[in-house]
Design a protein that fits this description.
InterPro entries: SRCR, SRCR-like_dom_sf. This is Deleted in malignant brain tumors 1 -like. One of its GO terms (cellular component) is membrane. Keywords: Disulfide bond, Glycoprotein, Receptor, Repeat, Signal. It comes from Paramuricea clavata. The protein contains one helix and four strands. By secondary structure, the protein is an alpha+beta fold. The chain has a single domain, classed as SRCR-like domain (Mac-2 Binding Protein). A four-stranded mixed β-sheet has the order 1-2-3-4, with no helix packed on it. Helix 1 links the parallel strand 3 and strand 4. The radius of gyration is 12 Å and the shape is globular. The two termini are about 20 Å apart.
């Protein structure tokens, strides 16, 4: 998992590596608990003010396929050590 296209190392679009390709996470169901788990998994610590923004802000011609969505409907309790441990479709 990694962040891309942010203004700094603490923000950006989350990409997940699966099956040999990088893909995105759908924002359906995404909330502060999911953001907390993602930050922890990325070794960024706990988010001070997790925000969900339109992903178009972070999209660019970076070579990643926007049509690959590897996680959707992510629902975390907040104590998971990885997003894959959260409920998802």
């Amino acid at each position: 998992m990694k962040l891309v296209n942010g203004r700094n190392s603490l923000e950006g679009r989350i990409l997940v590596y699966f099956n040999g390709s990088w893909g995105t996470i759908c924002d359906d169901g995404w909330d502060a608990k999911a953001a907390s788990v993602a930050c922890r998994e990325l070794s960024l610590g706990s988010p001070v003010e997790p925000q969900i923004v339109n992903q178009a802000r972070f999209e660019s011609n970076d070579g990643y396929k926007d049509n690959l969505v590897w996680l959707s409907g992510v629902s975390c309790k907040g104590n998971e050590n990885s997003l894959i441990r959260c409920d998802h479709e």
